[in-house]
Amino acid sequence: MKKVITYGTFDLLHKGHIRLLKRARALGDHLTVCVSTDEFNAEKGKHAYTSFEDRKYILEAIRYVDEVLPESSWDQKISDVVNNDIDVFVMGDDWQGKFDFLKDYCEVVYLPRTEGISTSKIKKDLGVPD
Length: 130
Ligand code: C2G
Known about the structure:
Elements: E1 3-8, H1 15-25, E2 30-36, H2 38-44, H3 52-60, E3 67-71, H4 77-83, E4 88-92, E5 107-111, H5 119-125
Parallel strand pairs: 1-2, 1-4, 2-3, 4-5
The structure holds [cytidine-5'-phosphate] glycerylphosphoric acid ester.
């Protein structure tokens, strides 16, 4: 079984997120999504509208997602890849090159982001603070 992993906040889920998950899943037979905890989001300088529990619940309902795990640190990716027997690590290309250190452990793929949509844009268009 070819296992794929990806990471993110996935707040205010939108088509860009779904397209990423769909393309990531298509690279293998199983997709693990590591969703940022509320505490880790604070470390990332992000404030998610939706709680970790609810973002996890929503992701688990997506047909392309097989497993959802917490992302609580920048430093967990190597152990995640090794401990979960991951073959492919996937991120949107806004992260191009940032995770190339994982090439020693698995294939690393950066997929083109979906243009014109983002959680920040949604918040801006709704007139709420980012
Ligand atoms: N994404 C995309 N197109 C968009 C918006 C997001 O392809 N229009 C992708 C991002 O590139 C990322 C994933 O969707 O691969 C999740 O995006 P975010 O929730 O914004 O994740 P981020 O805050 O970048 O967290 O350790 C990695 C971090 O947790 C990534």
